[in-house]
Amino acid sequence: xxxxxxxxxxxxxxxxxxxxxxxxxxxxxxxxxxxxxxxxxxxxxxxxxxxxxxxxxxxxxxxxxxxxxxxxxxxxxxxxxxxxxxxxxxxxxxxxxxxxxxxxxxxxxxxxxxxxxxxxxxxxxxxxxxxxxxxxxxxxxxxxxxxxxxxxxxxxxxxxxxxxxxxxxxxxxxxxxxxxxxxxxxxxxxxxxxxxxxxxxxxxxxxxxxxxxxxxxxxxxxxxxxxxxxxxxxxxxxxxxxxxxxxxxxxxxxxxxxxxxxxxxxxxxxxxxxxxxxxxxxxxxxxxxxxxxxxxxxxxxxxxxxxxxxxxxxxxxxxxxxxxxxxxxxxxxxxxxxxxxxxxxxxxxxxxxxxxxxxxxxxxxxxxxxxxxxxxxxxxxxxxxxxxxxxxxxxxxxxxxxxxxxxxxxxxxxxxxxxxxxxxxxxxxxxxxxxxxxxxxxxxxxxxxxxxxxxxxxxxxxxxxxxxxxxxxxxxxxxxxxxxxxxxxxxxxxxxxxxxxxxx
Length: 504
Description:
Elements: H1 6-31, E1 68-71, E2 77-82, E3 88-96, H2 110-117, H3 127-136, E4 140-144, E5 151-159, H4 163-175, H5 181-198, H6 202-215, H7 227-232, H8 235-245, E6 251-257, H9 261-271, E7 295-300, E8 306-314, H10 323-334, H11 340-348, E9 355-361, E10 365-375, H12 379-395, H13 400-417, H14 421-434, H15 440-449, H16 453-463, E11 470-475, H17 477-484, E12 490-493
Parallel strand pairs: 2-6, 7-11, 7-12
Antiparallel strand pairs: 1-2, 3-5, 3-6, 4-5, 8-10, 8-11, 9-10
Helix pairs in contact: 2-8, 10-16, 11-12, 12-16, 13-15
């Protein structure tokens, strides 16, 4: 029998205690969330709710604990939120300018693979030694840089009583990666296998085409690498990317947990003294613009029993003044199980297990989109109902009860998150990255509750336009192409992204 590392058990126990504490703290808030009301277009859930706690009409007022902030001599921004309730520390290092948005046009995947290789060897440890050291310490350690991101991220967590040891591993991984050729070869083989598997997944095919369509020539259009690019990449290319892009003046190191800020800052100054700043500054490409002509892109997946539908267009970036009204609008249309799309296509029609909407708002403008998986035989009905809901949010003002319900749901979710030190720290990081006002999160609930039906209709008309929606459907072209043509011009592609003839 394999026994768990005692340090792992201790970490798990501390985490379970934390979850139990948070659950007990937020249970009263959950009980006060209102049940869905009634709107004239879509009947609400048939579930009967009894003994609801009364809902307070007061707007949530909060004073968030602020982290201790410091800037090291090398330009690194440090944010530390002390939380001595549990003997655990969580850490995240965000390095702007090191993400795939900045990949060379002929090398998509360079930033992503650089991040993945950080754990595969340093000047003094090989991949196996790193894994064994992490396990012995009961810690976690990882790095990633997903397609579409402007940054690379390194995360670590562990117990506070051996913080120095596991942080030392993280610092070694950050500053001294060796990018060993043998491990890189193994990673490339795993990536090639993953690429083949991706092409069998309808959600991947849908998102790949959708990003290409809405982002156009913007680097965010790239959703994955290719086998040919993988073959062209070398350890030296990764090392150069790391040396030039992983620089402290563009980074934020966020720490939350059982630490003393003054002590940690002193340790960081010593441990990261060798991480030298440079002159490199992040420079973003021009913002993508919404596509003006509506079109339907059909990815043929023969014999598919369902149609995977995604529709949308470019909307706003995170700094935009419309961000909070769009949050509310999105919550009404498809933000969850009490939203219109879910209640219509799942509860009313039974077309799907679930459909949702969401929007991407980062340093550059991203899309508002809606979609889900529906049975092939109900593709036409589902498309009709999607369009109905997109038109309804634009043409009709949201009823007062529905608007109030969704706004209070957003504020309640925000309130629940305030029990978590890592969530609190993430709010501070967001404020820092996007240059938001110091009181942004303190005033967030009031701003949400101040959104009116007119505001919702205004942003819906601006960012949700059926006349310019870009629609991607993955499914059996023989069965659904003629159906989709009722909704617009259809262009057919195969699973490899190659255009197909119009005779299907």
